[in-house]
Specification:
695 residues, two-stranded antiparallel sheet, 27 helices
Length: 695
């Protein structure tokens, strides 16, 4: 293009930013000009140089580049052109002059030199005013929304405050309703802007409440039946992309978070360590493989204005869902002041987990989407999720409970059940170190219970068998199950139960070979191959370190001894449930109960502590420790000493205490039990206070 400069000379401009360029710096003042004109020209040249270079003299407030300024002017012109087509905004048809919504655009169009980046909020204001104004049509609002999306994509928006300004404007969007299809186009454009904002790096600087409001707004649209199927699917897709962007923050955030649970570092014994031990792996000979039974503790408060989902009272396909909320006691105190970012990410996970539960307002596609998002988040962050006590509590209270409710729903579809099994598989692979008790309940009272329930459809049984087969493909799955559950005094015989159930499902008892029989048979073969592979590696890759080899041998002997003790405990439990005296005699005969003088009270207390997980009736425990005989009272004191109440409130400690037995009905027995609890609770709190004072 040919243009004339101030000297009247025609020059060719090849840059597209013609409007942003002032006269060249090399031009000298014309003869005859005064001193004021010379100073003005010099000041003009300095401003021009700063605008071309894009920085201030101090570099603190750069100007918008030519392309960005051209884009702003172009979008302003596009919005003004659409608004001029309406008589309401046409200046020639108005008596009072220009409309208020157009003044901001005219200010942008009338300015020749670009604004600085500090004025970006002023640039966004007219576009936001059009979006939130109820006097504009859908076409006008859509043009303003499209402009905001381009501003985000091209880096015109540079700060978190400006991004919040755009998001708040989109959430407060208003326009004159016309036909339904046209309105849905505008709503779809809102989704694009919100998704673009969430996928931007500036979203990390936005308010968490604002982002949660955006997620909930999109969810409401996806559940609104008056909208078309296409718009609801677009809402689901927008929700998926936003959650993906938020979940992508998890690894970076969790890497900076300190480990809040010491037992997370090695919670489950891995048979891979026993198979090919490394000299760098230090194994303690006195390591404990079983802990005292876990207690129920809620570490997360329900969101404001909304109660946390309650647990079902009865699950027909096996067990109580309350066991899914069993939280392993951490040896370190839970930090009361959680980081806002941690709390925000935990709320996002809770929102997604709530969508997987069966409801009339949620479509199957939305539930499958939520399950796939959970799988993505768990797979992306892996075991780092366990570093956060708050996120770990959400996994226990919301995710696992939602998975159980969905799987145990009699009307569940096979494709939804398959997504549930995928999430369970991911949790076992990545989170089994910190969810030992919960995964035991999932496998025993969900997977195996569904296989043994006659009301389960053949299609759902095949899905469950495929999920178990996928778990068996891991070489150490069955070995880990045996060591951590069957050899533990406080867990069920999960390996024994699982193998018996698979063998039963693999055998065609009716004489007709079905696909489920073949799937179960493949699962059994996969498990046996994993065991064989582990043994082969153990034989061919013996550690040269004698200390490690000796430690492995000691561990194996200790596990075998614990398994023998557990078998005797199971036999004594059967006798106890029939007659207490026969149970005591069985314990004495097995060598598990010493005489009263040699510490028999402590042995019996340990048996009572492990009894509920082995099938011991809780009523028997409560009646026995509530008696007033001297030996019974000594057992009560030893039984109470096995609990650790340090750092717990009275309510939390009492809930943990009463979870292990059933309180008797007699008032005298209740008085003895509560008095023993109060005494040891006070002693532990006093001791903890003294230790904290010394530190």
């Amino acid at each position: 293009r040919l243009v004339k400069d101030q000297g009247g000379t025609c020059r060719t401009w090849s840059e597209p930013e013609l409007w942003a360029v002032n006269p060249p710096r090399s031009m000298q003042d014309e003869p005859g000009r005064g001193a004021d004109a010379s100073k003005g020209s010099l000041r003009w040249q300095q401003d021009e140089a700063q605008e071309i270079d894009g920085v201030n003299e101090d570099g603190s407030d750069p100007v918008l580049t030519g392309f960005k300024w051209f884009l702003i002017r172009k979008e302003a012109l596009a919005v003004v052109t659409i608004m001029r087509q309406s008589s309401k905004f046409n200046a020639s048809m108005r008596v009072k002059g220009e409309h208020e919504l157009l003044k901001g655009f005219m200010e942008i169009r009338s300015r020749i030199s670009p604004w600085r980046m500090s004025k970006t909020s002023r640039i966004l204001s007219p576009f936001i005013d059009v979006i939130v104004s109820p006097d504009t049509t859908g076409v006008m609002t859509s043009a303003a929304l499209s402009a905001c999306e381009k501003f985000i994509l091209n880096g015109i928006i540079m700060t978190g405050e400006q991004m919040e300004q755009v998001i708040e404007g989109v959430l407060a969007c208003q326009f004159e309703q016309s036909d339904l299809s046209g309105d849905e186009v505008v709503i779809s454009q809102m989704f694009h802007v919100l998704v673009c904002a969430m996928e931007s790096d500036l979203s990390e600087k936005c308010s968490s409440e604002l982002i949660l409001e955006a997620l909930q707004t999109i969810l409401r649209v996806s559940m609104e039946l008056r909208f078309s199927e296409m718009l609801r699917r677009q809402a689901e897709n927008a929700f998926s992309r936003m959650v993906h962007a938020l979940f992508s923050r998890l690894p970076r955030f969790l890497d900076l978070l300190p480990i809040t649970c010491r037992r997370f570092k090695q919670h489950i014994l891995r048979t891979s360590l026993l198979a090919s031990p490394s000299p760098s792996v230090k194994m303690s000979q006195d390591r404990e493989f079983s802990s005292y039974p876990s207690v129920v503790s809620w570490l997360i408060a329900p969101p404001r204005g909304k109660a946390s989902p309650s647990l079902p009272q009865d699950l027909t396909r096996g067990g109580q869902a309350s066991e899914l909320c069993v939280e392993e006691r951490s040896t370190s105190e839970v930090n009361a002041s959680m980081d806002k970012q941690e709390e925000f990410l935990a709320k996002v996970i809770a929102i997604v987990a709530e969508l997987i539960e069966p409801s009339e307002s949620r479509s199957d596609s939305l539930r499958c989407l939520a399950l796939s998002l959970l799988h993505y988040g768990i797979h992306l962050s892996s075991s780092r999720l366990l570093k956060s006590s708050l996120i770990r509590s959400v996994l226990c209270l919301h995710v696992l409970t939602g998975l159980a409710r969905t799987a145990l729903d009699p009307t569940v579809e096979p494709h939804i059940l398959a997504e549930v099994m995928t999430v369970i598989h991911s949790m076992f692979v990545h989170l089994r170190d910190g969810l030992r008790q919960q995964l035991e309940v999932i496998i025993s009272k969900l997977l195996l219970a569904m296989l043994e329930d006659r009301m389960t459809s053949d299609a759902c049984k095949e899905v469950v068998l495929e999920a178990i087969g996928d778990l068996c493909l891991h070489r150490s799955f069955l070995s880990d199950i045996y060591i951590n559950y069957d050899c533990s005094l406080h867990n069920r015989n999960l390996f024994e139960h699982l193998t018996k159930s698979l063998c039963k499902q693999a055998f065609p008892s009716s004489g007709l070979l079905l696909s489920s029989h073949l799937i179960a048979f493949r699962a059994v073969v996969s498990g046996l191959q994993g065991i064989n592979s582990r043994i082969s590696r153990r034989l061919h890759q013996l550690s040269p370190d004698r200390h490690v080899s000796a430690a492995v041998g000691i561990l194996s002997q200790k596990l075998s001894k614990q398994k023998q003790i557990k078998r005797r405990y199971l036999m004594a439990t059967e006798h106890f449930n029939r007659d207490v005296k026969k149970g005591l005699a069985m314990l004495t005969k097995s060598g598990l109960l010493r005489s009263k003088e040699e510490g028999g009270a402590k042995d019996l207390a340990v048996f009572f502590k492990a009894g509920p997980s082995l099938g011991l009736d809780k009523r028997i425990i409560g009646d026995y420790i509530g008696e007033r005989d001297d030996f019974n009272q000594e057992v009560l004191r030893e039984f109470t000493r096995l609990f650790h109440f340090t750092g717990d409130t009275v309510e939390q400690a009492l809930r943990a205490y009463l979870e292990s037995f059933l309180l008797p009905g007699e008032s005298q027995k209740i008085d003895r039990i509560t008095e023993a609890f109060a005494q040891f609770y006070f002693e532990q709190q006093k001791l903890a206070g003294e230790e904290a004072g010394q530190e």
